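Example (one chain per record):
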Amino acid sequence: GYGTVQLIGPSFSISDDNATAILGHPNTILEGGGAGTLVSPKWTSTTVDRGCIELVTQGTTRFKVYNLTIGHAAADSSKFNGHGIKFQGNGTGGTYELPTGADAYLQVQDVNIHYPRGHGVYTLGTAGDPSGCRGFRAKSVTVRGASSSTAPGDGFRIDSSDAKLMDCTCADVLVGFRIMGGSQKITHCKTFYTVGDGFSVESSLAALSACEAQDCGRWGFNLATSNFAAHGISADSCARRDQTGGGVRVAAWGSISGVHCSDRGQTPGSLQNRGIEFVGTPQVFIEGFVEAPTDRTNFVDWVVGSPGAGSYGRIVRYGTTVWAVG
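Predicted structure:
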């Protein structure tokens, strides 16, 4: 560890043996010279579960990927197999110099990932333990996935706790941001053209702020696990591929303020026909604004279902009365 490995030159190819990856070492920065520094995976198997960049051991800590692009050149823009970045840790960072205890503090910053068939950024622990890559950080990372209609991989699949994602964007993926580890903070992030949900909260204590889901396939925000805080979130023209979706789905207790749901009316056959839907009467605090599509042929409602006892909410329904509870 200790130091920076600089990639000097326009492009670098990864072996086509479906096994070799760039391996990150403890306390080291892998640095490119900007977006024009291209790392190109050449794996031949469409089912390979490897990242173009991984960790040298599962105990690796404080490794950072910075200032480069993973994908193929413009003349060869076909999709690549595997994941862009896959970090799998075991939560034993205290065994290395500059010990971190159980926190890995891995980072990805100013990185572009183009056309992965797998996940763009994927973090996880061992044997399903989400603490293995605890403390992961991503800033200014862009993922453009395999397809807006059939993409098999997520943009950001963060199956590790205490992660922080800021100023990240993804499109043409299965799920934009899949939040699977507890106590994650996602801020100033946007996803669009997903096959499924834009943001899927699948673990407790998630905090989302100033995030946007646009033209997503099902729900803009699927808040499925309890004790979340979502503030300043916007769902624009979602349910593009699944009309059972909509703006925001609330299936667990938590707090939502400054939520905004609307539809631009650009795809008449698949409008965002639900604003906010409550599933299973969760107890919530919610305040926001919902606009219905201009074409209301298949419109369900501004607000669908009801929150549980003890809830408080005020939602302005554009063109009609205020929805209120509590």
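Caption: The first strand starts at residue 3 and ends at 6.
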